[in-house]
Amino acid sequence: MSYDEKSKYNSVMRRRYAAMITKTAKGRVLDDFCGVTGLSRKHAIKTLRKRSGSSRKRGRPSGGTKGGTALLVKAWKLSDMLCGKLLKVVLSMYLDSIEHQKPISLAVRKEVLKMSASTIDRRLRSVKVKTGISRTRRATSLSAHRREIPLKIDIWPEQYPKHPGWIEVDTVAFCGGSMKGSFVWGLTMTDVGSAWTRIRCVWNKGAVGVCSCVQDFITEVPFKVIAMNSDNGGEFINGHLKHEFSEYLPSVIRTRSRSYRKNDNAHVEQKNCIHVRQLFGYGRIELLNELPLMNDICRTQELIKNLFTPTMRLLSKERHGSRYIKKYEKTPKTPAQRLLESPGVSDKNKAVISQMVKDNDICILRSKLNKDLRKLAVILAKSPAGETTSARPKHPPGASGPRASSAKNKKRKSRHATCC
To answer: Looking at the chain, which terminus has fewer C-beta neighbours within 10 angstroms, N or C?
Structure first.
């Protein structure tokens, strides 16, 4: 029997089956239909009975009224889109607040209060889809990469590392108080033993910029890098940096700080203030074209701080009652002097450091730095980011870096110019 013949036969038998009134008559039609088609009796009944226009959804009906759903959605949005388990606890409180604004029928109120946490989530499912709220978290590889990197306290020496080669890295956001959009980030790398520090500016913490800066620092510094410690941020714990170290820097150990323990990365955190914030300030910098100028400023600052700026290293810190007693070095030294005196630095690298000190002059470096800073300050003052400072942290009075002119300062300057 062809497909068309089978379709016509089914139509004829369906009309005959619908015309039968008694159960016995329907049974005789089923016997004939099963004998011709070879179908089972249950399959034949489903084929011959009258088809409805729309098939009803199987399972228990959802129940509830449109008014109850609307009230639940209103309370859910009022609660800042809590999940069903949390919303169930405070639902009566929210309904009381809604009722103060607009009367609620008693039946609808009882319907909403009667819902369980699972029912609340089920009734809100279609609304969550429209608002773009995902039920599951996005899968990320950050946790997997984090588990592969050991903690700093497990790898680093128990005592304060006196020899160079133990590096701490961190990033600083030039966001002006708002992380929205794209802007410049500062990457700070410092050696714990000698305080040798390098700053570089990258765009949006991109993998290419961060990887190249880290690799350049490890390969160019005048000492051998043993280990590098970072926080748990995604700019350092990712597949790109993992491949970079395994492929090009296999001898360098990677470690990470404990979560919510800033003191694990204390040396670079301190440099973030002295080397970065006092240099570039707290304003928002979102000018991609000015990255070369900012990196030139960073290179000059690196020479000034590493070759001509002495520091006092902390030797011990003891607590006596409510006071801390700290002991520092009696003679401050520059990072270059510490490297020259260190037995862990080769004679070849010591010769490179000595040549760097001879080739650079502090007056020339300071003049160049101030000139570049003034140029950057003028550019930032003209940029759109310099006009909005309501969300930007206050700039410290002693900070020497450029800061974009705020709208208040611009009005003050224009008023002063008018008066004069």
So the answer is: C
